[in-house]
Amino acid sequence: MTGLILRTLLSHWRSRPFQIVTLLLGLIVATALWSGVQAINAEARASYAQAAATLGTDRFDSLRPRGAQRFDQRAYVALRRAGWLVSPIVEGDLRLDGARFRVLGIDPVTAPADLPARPDLQGDALTGFLGQAGLILTGAQTAGRLPADADLPPVRVMDGIAPRTLVMDIGTAQRLLGMSGQLSRLIVLPEAQDGIPPLAVAGIEWNRIAPRGADGGIAALTDSFHLNLTAFGFLAFAVGLFIVYSSIGLAFEQRKPMLRTLRALGVPLRLLMLVMVVELTALALLAGIAGVALGYLIAASLLPDVAATLQGLYGAQVSGTLSLRPAWWLTGLAIAMGGAGLAAADTLWRTARMPLLSAALPEAWHGAQRRAQRVQGIAALGCFALAAVLSQTASSLTAGFVLMGALLIGAALSLPVMLSVILGLGARRARGPLAQWGWADARQQMSRLSLALMALLLALSANIGVGTMVMSFRDTFTGWLDQRLVAEVYVTASDAAQGQEIQRWAQGRVDAVLPIWSTETRLGDMPASIYGVAQHATYSDHWPLIEELPDAWQSLASGQAAMINEQMAGRRDLSPGDRITVPLPDGGEWPMIVAAIYSDYGNPTDQVMVDVDLLSERFPDIERLRFALRTDQTAEIIAEARDRFALPSDQITDQAAIKALSLAIFERTFTVTGALNVLTLAVAALALLTAMLTLQLMRLPWLAPLWAMGLTRAALARAELLKVMALALLTAILAIPVGLGVAWVLTNVINVTAFGWRLPMNVYPADWLRLIGLSLLTAAIAAGLPVLRLARTAPRTLLGVFASER
Amino acid sequence: MLTITDLHKSFETADAPMPVLRGVDMEIATGECVALTGESGSGKSTLLHLVAALDTFDRGSITLDGQEFSGMGDTARANLRRTRIGVIFQQFNLIPSLSVGDNLSFHARLSDRYDAAWQAELTERLGLSELVHRWPEQLSGGQQQRVAVGRAIAARPALVLADEPTGNLDEATGSAVMDLLLDLVAETQATLLMVTHSGALAARLNRRIHLRHGRVAEVAAA
Ligand SMILES: Nc1ncnc2c1ncn2[C@@H]1O[C@H](COP(=O)(O)OP(=O)(O)O)[C@@H](O)[C@H]1O
Ligand SMILES: [Mg+2]
């Protein structure tokens, strides 16, 4: 009996192929977007974890000299002699043909046994690794990216090495990075003692840095980006479920007589439900497999742009290609099943409660709709109240996302109420019976269309919100770069001696030479960088200050004052006039007053800015490598410096090139958000289409009398199209404030909690117009097919409405 | 075989429950063919639905071959419909996505009483042999109702219930469908309870029960 019932239920789809296609499509798209985003996130996280494992920062403590980037390797020898179980590391960036690689020099003899790359070093490999020529170990992808003509030691491909990372012997790394005799840090082996080596051993004061956990600390930075992606994926999934919901609802409406007949012929309800669940599971499994596969394709095509964004904005290295993870396939399938179950729950429930005999009285939709709207309105008010409270108090990333969720759900729930009010007003003003019918009919249609319209509202407001954020970020960032990168040329010397030479040469050639020297230190229990800048109009005229005391720039020269970035001010709750104390390498202290706070977009760490002469006096070990040059002969200066000092192109850049680079990074970000935007809108269009198809079928009895009274089918079709477009237009207009709300939450709450800086929010009305146009297009496409079908309905079908009395 | 005593049924309406059946009593013997008549709204369909175990009643009892309906659960009632009862509706209620042939054998297969020879004979006698591969929507009303008759009879139910089976058909077609139905009922030794408002049709059956205001007003031999 079960097989017979299943076959009978399935026979329904044979006569409605389009319906099964939309159902499957909805589920496929929902699963694909969700699992695609998950795949991107998983890949990025795996890359972070791999990077941390390769660098050993996930498990081992490190020792770094206080106030310097590198130190003499004799200090390491002294520590080993004194019984400290440490292993040396050389780190640095290597630019080859414009691509950046991370160089990691290790000592295979003393390195911890479970550092990746270490265990495989045996026999030949070990000899080669330690030999004169050296050996580079790297992943297959990275090896493929290395320029063929680069003058590098032989390369061997190995698994488990982080993307864009080259592992080699200490000596080889020192040679490639120009760091002969120098080390970057020491790994403290697990069996080594606690504490910090005393100053007496190597003449260096050490900082001991605790492991940063499996993601190497980068996750905290990129969390917001991934959360944005996740929110996007979730939204698309929800919109996709709307489609599944309405096509299952449509199938239910159409199969109702069949279900009744089956029950009348003696099929027990429980068996019928069971068979329906089996049918649904089979469909969900099918769609899940296709959806996960499609998600994989989406993720694979977006990943290079995501990787470029993450690298550009946060310096995080992410593999550009996707690996397949079984867990991800399984969750994708589970998501498809869960989604199908969620979308079908209502239908299953209605089937279970369906009276065997069709009700004699038609459903009183008026009262039912009003009741439903009242409940929705109250729920929406609740959501808005929660959002209002959170907008004042939210101080964590989670609270920020709850705020966004409350805002979006509240907006979606209030949409039917708002539209109903607007349509009611319209109906009251309408003259003539046809116009009156049109308004009233649109209002009645709402109960069925409202889910699809909500989907459209969510898609549009996500579009506006994310678009506003990304464009605000670009405009703010480039404007800020204009202020911050005022000097025409930036040059980095290869070593301190060359730095002096460059300074001497430039002093006669350009209008001003401004050293930019810095050091890393710890203030309290958090790391911070200290930058030294020169006293020059370049800074005092342009540098972007948010808050300042009077004569802030002049007070820097006295050594009594410093400026700090917005991140630091936010994290440590500092304002102009507060005091900070910088520990000095000689054990002394440097107390200062905060004279100003400046904006510092995209920088994850705290920063203090002081006078450069005072900085180099008090931190004798700082790198004296970077200079900003003011000149009106940019091209000539760059060419001359390159010749004279044999500088590679990444060590001398003009400001225009840096700006072009950051704009290029933004383009990649736009590609990602743009693709996701289009996909969500497409899903919303599909939702609208399926809802329209459902509706049309049920509305035939309402339209037939109009036809009988002398309206042509074409006129009816035109009226239908007009109504859907009007509803879409109203929805799009309502989506603008919601989208701005989303943008505000992103820029003023989520960004602040994630990065420590507030993003000024700009508005882009031209973009709204584009979206309104897009939503009208969406509605026209979605309504096209049903309206065309209405215009072609056979008169016999319309007559049938009158023939079949209940 | 069918005994109904003091049957009460009312429907919930907006203000107060509306009584439709107020104490119906009747007794039908095996093999009898009974017409159920009455004005529109007198409760004929309601009574038929109760006998078909499609709906539940408030008070009284219905027994079919000694089996009491009241207190039966949903599954038990579904079993009863599947194995003992065949229903023919005024709206035919065929399954639109199944072919005519599949519709014809549907109930028999559902109740595990499919008999290929009987099915073929039935199809032949109903004049549907040429049409088995068509879809229900491609048939005329008379043809559709013949499929519905065939579907009900194919499972050889003990009790056949029909609610104005010819109500949607013209007189000639209706009478042809009636001939077939009565023949097949007699041949399968089924009992028939049929709602009709046609006096001529009622006259062709053994007995006639007239409903008025929810009670049996008169019982007359045809
Ligand atoms: N589901 C229902 N809900 C409310 N009233 C009903 C329902 N079904 C039938 N009725 C009412 O019960 C009465 C009898 O209906 P019915 O049995 O269909 O009469 P008929 O004899 O014409 O077949 C009518 O007044 C009808 O309006
Ligand atoms: Mg009736």
Show the helix and strand layout.
The complex is a heterodimer of chains A (806) and B (222).
Chain A lengths: L1 H14 L1 H39 L5 E5 L5 E2 H9 L4 E11 L2 E8 L16 H8 L5 E3 L1 H6 L9 E3 L7 E5 H8 L4 E2 L1 E4 L10 H4 L3 E4 L8 H47 L4 H46 L11 H28 L11 H29 L3 H33 L3 H52 L4 E4 L3 H14 L2 E12 L2 E8 L3 H6 L2 E4 L3 H6 L3 E5 H7 L6 E5 L5 E10 L7 E6 H7 L4 E8 L3 H12 L6 E3 H54 L4 H43 L9 H27 L3 H9 L3
Parallel strand pairs in A: 4-7, 5-6, 13-18, 15-17
Antiparallel strand pairs in A: 1-9, 1-10, 2-8, 3-4, 3-9, 11-19, 11-20, 12-13, 12-19, 14-17, 15-18, 16-17
Chain B lengths: L1 E10 L6 E11 L4 E6 L5 H8 L7 E6 L2 E2 L5 H11 E4 L11 H11 L5 H10 L15 H14 L4 E5 L7 H17 L3 E5 L3 H5 L3 E6 L2 E7 L1
Parallel strand pairs in B: 3-8, 3-9, 6-7, 7-8
Antiparallel strand pairs in B: 1-2, 1-4, 4-5, 9-10
Helix pairs in contact in B: 3-5, 5-6
The structure holds adenosine-5'-diphosphate (ADP) and magnesium ion.
The site of adenosine-5'-diphosphate (ADP) has 10 residues of chain B, from helix 1.
Biggest interchain interface, per-side counts: A-B, 25 and 31 residues
Structural class of chain A: alpha+beta
Query: Low-confidence parts of chain A, pLDDT < 50 over ≥5 residues?
Result: 213-218, 360-364
The succession of helices and strands of chain B, N to C, reads EEEHEEHEHHHEHEHEE
* CA radius of gyration of chain A: 33 Å
Strand content of chain A: 5-15%
Largest pleated sheet of chain A: 10 strands, mixed
CATH superfamily (homologous) name of chain B: P-loop containing nucleotide triphosphate hydrolases
For the residues shown, what is the average pLDDT of chain B?
90
Assign a percent range to the helix content of chain B. 25-40%
Morphology of chain A: elongated
Tally of helical segments of chain A = 23
Oligomer: heterodimer
The dominant shape of chain B is globular
N/C terminus separation of chain B: 20 Å
Instruction: Report the end-to-end length of chain A measured between terminal Cα atoms.
Output: 30 Å
Overall structural class of chain B, as computed from helix and strand content, comes to alpha/beta
What percent of residues of chain B are in strands? 25-35%
Which small-molecule species are bound to the chains here? adenosine-5'-diphosphate, magnesium ion
Pfam families (chain B): ABC_tran
GO molecular function, one term (chain B): ATP binding
Family (chain B): Belongs to the ABC transporter superfamily. Macrolide exporter (TC 3.A.1.122) family.
Domain ABC transporter (chain B): 2-222
